[in-house]
Amino acid sequence: MTSSLRLAMSAAAVLATALLVVGCSSSPGSSTPTSDATPDDSGSSTTPVTDDDIEAAWLDNGRLFAIVTWGSSTCVPVVDEVTANGQTVTVALADAPSADGAETACTADLAPRASIGGVPEGVDPTKDVEFVVTVDGVTDDAELDGNAALTGTPGSETDYAPSAGWFDDEGVVLLTWGSSTCPPIVENLEEQPGGATVTFKTEDRQCTMDMAPRATMLGFSDDIDDDGDFILTLVGDNLDGAVTVMKG
């Protein structure tokens, strides 16, 4: 089964605080990666889900999470504060500050955006987790099922490997690591039994030398079979490899 790319948007970390997670910090659960987004130029405008509910996804083997909200693709909320009480994680999202302090102009599109945060120490990703999320003055919740395959320890250091998690029956958040100013650009997405091949554009760009988490939203057709392992084969832009999409 083959389909054209239905959605490809990248969310790249732009705040210096995000570098605490990938640079000098050994505790992703205690510092919060942040994200911003730029639309890709694939020409695709179809979204992977049909509602605007807040969703969540497991990333980084259970050490990180993504909160998916809907709004302008160029103004992605950042994770401002994360706390936990047992298996309930409270997340506050805030507008991402601009580099020069000026008000950011947002596009008028409506798209899913991923805000990446660290799972607090003490939370067990192998058990069900409830995320209570506040954004733009509105509080909603999202639940993730525990996954016994998640062997990462919240609060421990990331291994900087690509990872991916389902946030919806047709939507995946793909996490890669690299320059915050050069997020991956999806050129093509081809579905096949048991997975999909994601081809990224490989091009020369002026990139900063930081190492940041970048979230790419991927949408699939409604007849994919995600009951078993769903494997993404990444091709191009120095991202070649295979990633098993985590369930939650």
Task: Describe the protein.
This protein is 2% helix and 42% strand. The chain has one domain (8-246). The protein is globular and about 40 Å long. With 248 residues, it is mainly beta. The chain has one helix spanning 19-22; strands at 8-12, 36-39, 55-59, 64-71, 78-85, 88-94, 111-118, 129-135, 138-144, 163-168, 171-178, 186-192, 195-200, 212-219, 231-235, 241-246. Residues 1-50 have low confidence and may be disordered.
Q: What key attributes describe this structure?
A:
single chain; 248 residues; mainly beta; nine-stranded mixed beta sheet; four-stranded mixed beta sheet; 1 helix
Report the order of strands and helices: EHEEEEEEEEEEEEEEE
Overall tally of structural domains: 1
Give the biggest beta sheet. Answer: 9 strands, mixed
How many beta-strand segments? 16
Number of helices: 1
Strand content: 35-45%
The shape, in one word, is globular
Strands of the largest sheet, in order across it? Answer: 2-1-14-11-10-16-15-13-12
Q: Into which percent range does the helicity of residues fall?
A: under 10%
Low-confidence stretches: 1-50
Give the N-terminus to C-terminus distance in angstroms. Answer: 24 Å
Radius of gyration computed on alpha carbons:
16 Å
Mean pLDDT: 81
Q: Based on helices, strands and strand pairing, what is the structural class?
A: mainly beta
